[in-house]
Predict the structure.
Amino acid sequence: MGSALADAALAGGLGLLIGSFLNVVIHRLPRTMYRGWLLDATANLAPQPGIPSLWELVFGKGTHAPGQLEQDAETALAQVDALPALTLARPGSRCGHCGHAIRWYENIPLLSWGVLRGRCSACGAAIGLRYPAVELVTGLLFGLCGWRFGLTPTAALWAAFCTILVCQFVIDLDTQLLPDSLNYLLLWLGLAGSAYGLTGVSPTSAIWGAVFGYLSLWTVYRLYRAATGKEGMGFGDFKLLAALGAWLGAPFLLALILMSSLVGALLGVVLLLVGRLANRHVPISFGPFLAGAGLLCLAIGPDRVRAWLPFAFPLGF
């Protein structure tokens, strides 16, 4: 028991540090995606010697974009190219209000936020409660992995599972985006973990879990669009459920959908309480529900999920 607690404490401490980095990922990854899209759009519209413009490729040779669209795109392309570098490592962390560079002792997980009383040391602007919340949740999840699996490759793999899902949960809640870079990483880690016997799921079940996870939501999407003419969810949701299927296996897909409904209900109540759902016409992302269901499944444990939701496993798998 003492060894398990020590493993949990060490893993939890590492999780707090990782959680601090996840706040950077959550903030910057969507912005790097926006920049990439803008760069692609302006590069495709701007005229290039010897290469047909995107307008010509769509509307035919000899056609021209209306007004000054191509010239404006060329100007915009130069402006995007001139932007300073933005990566997960550069520039260093700064206050979003005054640009104050965050010193190392102002970036200690949980502790710095408490000492600073949730405010920037330079301008006094509030630092959102979400930052220590992400650190705390990540630390607790890492601690759970250390307690359950010890300091082993299996624990490290499941800690990576938690890391990606925490990012996807918050990013999708903020932006209604589920970055492919994280979804694909989660998928391939799940399949590789299955192949090496680290997830407890057979490779066959992992592969079919990915296949049916994607196709199930894709089918719902197509039927809903055919019936209403609207898109009820994004392709990122299909990929995320596929990745979860690779980690947990095909028999858990129905349980994941049911648990995502529970997570959605709880999250909806929280968002109502904090005023995020004051406008009922604002769409709610499905990704946080799926990510939360995956984390909940890990926290409860697959055996308890089977015991508590036996009707989700109708074939007795």
